[in-house]
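Supplementary Methods S3. Complex input for the flavin mononucleotide-bound model.
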Amino acid sequence: MSKLWGSLQALIPILNDARLAHITLHPRLGCEQYKKPADVEEFAAFAAECKHTLIYNGDILTLQDIEQIEARFPTLDGIMIGRGLLANPALGIEYKQRKVLTDKELCERVQAMHDAMYQAMSPRLQGNTQLLSKMVPYWEYLMPKMEKRYRKAILKANSADKFMQAVNCALANY
Ligand SMILES: Cc1cc2nc3c(=O)[nH]c(=O)nc-3n(C[C@H](O)[C@H](O)[C@H](O)COP(=O)(O)O)c2cc1C
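Predicted complex, serialized as structure tokens:
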């Protein structure tokens, strides 16, 4: 028996007795961090015994990942996505349209989102430091296929102008 399943088995009777709207399960132990993949088999075992409606979470990065989970667990109440949406904020649109965006379409979407965020944040934040501290971290995750040198230029930008130039350059060369 895996350590995760041991913990889940102990929790199932308690969770089944609790008045819950639903459960979102990320089938991995906190101490494992993101080192190995989320365990879909453990999720399936939990789903078989859980009386509440369930939401799946863990390692959903692409439209195909969503479709695989949907096909395997047709009665799910939903799928929660973390890093996949940070990497590709258009994943929801891809799901709705059942079509993966081209690189050009993705760049247009990211540019529009980025410009809207920048315009919304810049009047509210004081100077370069605050603005960069809010905007730059998105680029730790956004568009993982991006060439390293473009991401590096974004992450090390020390003024709003240099940051915007680096972003525009990265998107133009994506
Ligand atoms: C940048 C970031 C911040 C997160 N912050 C929280 C948090 O504040 N509370 C929490 O319970 N989980 C947090 N998580 C974990 C996510 O909720 C999610 O369970 C985890 O990322 C696994 O889903 P994923 O594989 O779709 O990313 C965070 C994850 C990321 C990547």
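Residues 154 and 166 are 5 Å apart (CA to CA). The chain has two domains: 3-97, 103-172.
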